[in-house]
Automatic annotation (TrEMBL):
PANTHER family found in the cross-reference section: 2-DEHYDRO-3-DEOXY-D-GLUCONATE 5-DEHYDROGENASE, SHORT-CHAIN DEHYDROGENASES/REDUCTASES FAMILY MEMBER
Pfam families: adh_short_C2 (PF13561)
Record InterPro entries: NAD(P)-bd_dom_sf, Sc_DH/Rdtase_CS, SDR_fam
UniProt entry keywords in alphabetical sequence: Oxidoreductase
Family per similarity comment: Belongs to the short-chain dehydrogenases/reductases (SDR) family.
Protein name: 2-dehydro-3-deoxy-D-gluconate 5-dehydrogenase KduD
Ubl conjugation as UniProt keyword: no
Keyword DNA damage recorded: no
Length: 252
């Protein structure tokens, strides 16, 4: 018996690839052999850091600048990718807004749900259609600890990430028998732009660290291995799962 994590000859789309978790995901997939189409709202057409990292592994990189709050822009990307042979789709683009629920501006709610949930369905529907036609594919969503919990002062984000959990299961139910696995990764408290406010608050940061058995904030590269696993043949019998990568947070 052999277990393969080799992605040579595949093409992966990674959204939110310019920095943070998406950057780590894209580089890890390239190191495993995949060519990368990196999508981000502000990614440079040429010369980005993630392009250099991917190309340093001998893989091809294509950049697409798309604002995931813009439905028409996402539909245009979906239309382009529908006709491409995409083997792996990583839905990682996301945003967060913090305010108490009773004061949470509705425009924040709309934008967060659009970016973190609705746009991801639009893109997955299009790319997934090609995967289903070929009878193979890997879809990975970036979920969250708030796919399991409610959070504080982030009602739109919690609702969207809970929605991602349901979407993973719904798509897995329909697509797994047709050769397309659908899973999610739920990062714990990772040191990225999205958690800067928490890390800057000494009391909140201490409370978080006190609950994490690993005793530290996560790093974007902690997500690399799980991404390659879920994108590779090694996970062919894994579908409909939300995999926490949280230093033990949920077990505490």
């Amino acid at each position: 018996m052999s277990v393969s994590f080799d992605l040579t000859g595949t093409t992966a789309v990674v959204t939110g690839a310019k920095r943070g978790i998406g950057y780590a995901m894209a580089e890890a997939l390239a190191e495993a052999g995949a060519d990368i189409i990196g999508v981000s709202a502000t990614i440079e057409a040429e010369g980005s850091a993630i392009a250099a990292a991917v190309e340093a592994h001998g893989r091809r990189f294509e950049a697409r600048a798309v604002d995931f709050a813009d439905r028409e822009a996402v539909l245009a990307l979906a239309g382009e990718l529908r006709d491409r042979e995409i083997d792996i789709l990583v839905n990682n683009a996301g945003t967060i807004e913090r305010a108490p629920a009773a004061e949470h501006p509705l425009e924040w709610w709309d934008r967060v749900v659009e970016v973190n949930l609705s746009s991801q369905f639009v893109l997955t529907q299009a790319v997934g259609a090609g995967m289903l036609a070929r009878g193979r594919g890997k879809v990975i969503f970036t979920a969250s600890l708030l796919s399991f919990q409610g959070g504080i002062n982030v009602p739109g984000y919690a609702a969207a990430k809970s929605g991602i959990s349901g979407l993973v299961k719904a798509l897995a139910n329909e697509w797994t028998a047709r050769g397309v696995t659908v899973n999610g990764i739920a990062p714990g408290y990772i040191a990225t732009d999205n958690t800067q406010n928490l890390r800057d608050d000494p009391d909140r940061s201490k409370a978080i660290l006190d609950r994490i058995p690993a005793g530290r904030w996560g790093r974007p590269d902690d997500i690399a291995g799980p991404t390659v696993f879920l994108a590779s043949p090694a996970s062919d019998y894994v579908s409909g799962v939300i995999l926490p990568v949280d230093g033990g947070w949920l077990g505490r």
